[in-house]
Write a structure and sequence with these properties.
The chain is of the alpha+beta class. The chain contains 7 helices and 7 strands; from the N terminus they run αααβααββαββαββ. The radius of gyration is 40 Å and the shape is elongated.
Length: 297
């Protein structure tokens, strides 16, 4: 309605009421702003509650973890004490075993001994040797690994192990192939020799007569040094390639299950890594990685 129409209406009918027209834009803006503010406050409140809940759960889990760690530490201390006691007992047991072995050998060499007595004496000697070997492995596994690093020539360690296992290789009619690298690494020489000895002995025990065991080493593209022992035996199933490093795991009736556990213990003490893989075309492959090369290697 225009101003002229409005004035004309008043002049004809008189003024009975007023019509007030106000804009609601400002009110709508205030209401929307208030709703947004309430929404934001609600969201912030929800986030705060969720954060407090999460913090509480984290604190509870952290407390439970600390309690478990404390219990684990106490259990480890107890196991360490038991381990030392067991190692001492095993060490003391070797002495009477050596006496038994010596007496059995003396009896078997007596002229008046019958064939049956000599056969029994040989059985006693064989059994004593088996138990002694298991005790030696247990003692080796129980020893704390105090690594004393020095520069070690890998080929020299391989040669020493080859000489030590010459009789076993000859008895099994197995071939030992050595792929030399001339590399020097930083390691505890005695521990490295023990680890390699156990790996090669394990390979010799599993290869068939006339089989082959290979010891090789080299430098990885990253600059680290690797060493591996391969054999042409039956290999290790995928499901057992982690289990073989656990103490007392063995697939051989006369095995102690500590040889590869000692190897892993030595490897971890040096900060290295070891893995069990399949050899091509058959057999097992044990590879030690991340050996540190020394200058001149």
């Amino acid at each position: 309605m225009s101003e002229e129409d409005y004035q004309a209406m008043i002049s004809k009918q008189g003024l009975h009421s007023f019509v007030v027209v106000l804009s609601t834009r400002t009110l709508d803006a205030i209401v929307r702003g208030d709703l947004w503010l309430r929404t934001i406050i609600g969201l912030l409140g929800g986030v705060a509650v969720a954060g407090l809940t999460l913090a509480w759960r984290t604190m509870v889990k952290s407390s439970e973890l600390q309690i478990r760690l404390l219990r684990a530490s106490e259990l480890n201390n107890h196991l360490r004490e038991m381990n030392v006691a067991a190692a001492g007992l095993a060490h003391e047991t070797r002495n009477p075993l050596n006496i038994v072995r010596g007496l059995a050998q003396m009896i078997s060499k007596q002229e008046e001994a019958t064939a049956e007595i000599r056969r029994r004496s040989v059985e006693i000697t064989t059994e004593v040797d088996r138990v002694t070997a298991q005790l030696n492995q247990f003692i080796a596994y129980s020893k704390p690994r105090d690594v004393k690093l020095s520069r070690v020539l890998l080929d020299g360690v391989v040669d020493e192990v080859a000489r030590a296992l010459g009789g076993d290789l000859e008895e099994k009619r197995a071939r030992l192939s050595i792929q030399r690298s001339g590399l020097l690494v930083e390691a505890d020489e005695q521990m490295l020799r023990q680890a390699l000895f156990n790996l090669v002995m394990n390979a010799v025990q599993f290869v068939e007569p006339g089989g082959e065991v290979t010891v090789a080493s080299g430098r990885a593209p990253e600059g680290d040094v690797w060493m591996e022992v391969r054999d042409t035996g039956p290999g290790v199933p995928v499901s057992e390639r982690q289990e073989v490093f656990k103490p007392y795991f063995t697939t051989r009736p006369d095995g102690s299950g500590l040889g590869l556990a000692v190897v892993q213990q030595i490897v971890l003490a040096h900060g290295w890594d070891i893995e069990c893989l399949a050899n091509t075309p058959r057999g097992a492959l044990f590879r030690i990685r991340h050996l540190k090369a020394t200058p001149g290697a």
